[in-house]
Amino acid sequence: MKKKTRYVILGLLRDEAMTGYEIKNCIDRRMSFFWQESYGQIYPELNAMQNDGLLDAREDQQSGNRVKFRYTITEKGRQVFNDWMTEECEKDTVRSEAFLKFFLANDSNQADVIHHLEKFHQQNRERLESYEMFMKSFQGLEDMHNHKYILKMLELGIRQQHLYCDWSSDYIDELKNND
């Protein structure tokens, strides 16, 4: 199984140069319903990709004395990304600690389950609001047709967050009303 971190980075850098922090922030704000990466995955991969000639880095001293690097994709990086896009997708896996706890909750304290459900609901409500704000940022753009794939994935994320919020709200009501 190939590590996908490099392809996430290459894909994001196709549109604009970014720092490692900006890459992480973009993943967290826009892709978290289907993808996560940690700083511990991103920064070592940025270094490896630079060594492999997939990225260029230049110093970017925007914040105080701390040196940041802004990364841009190279032609070789574009080719590696394009080659990966033609490959078949591997089987998807979903890992959710919340889902695991809900699945295994039979003998658990109901108050704990409700607490986890309420937290799950809150997190998904916040994600939903974030995705809806991101979607609104596209409204009125003259080049919306250039963003059709992002918009469709964003639509999926919004639908998913609605589903999670509705499901968790219903489940909380069910548990509270069965006492």
TrEMBL record:
Boundaries of every Transcription regulator PadR C-terminal domain copy: 94-176
Domain Transcription regulator PadR N-terminal: 9-81
Record protein name field: PadR family transcriptional regulator
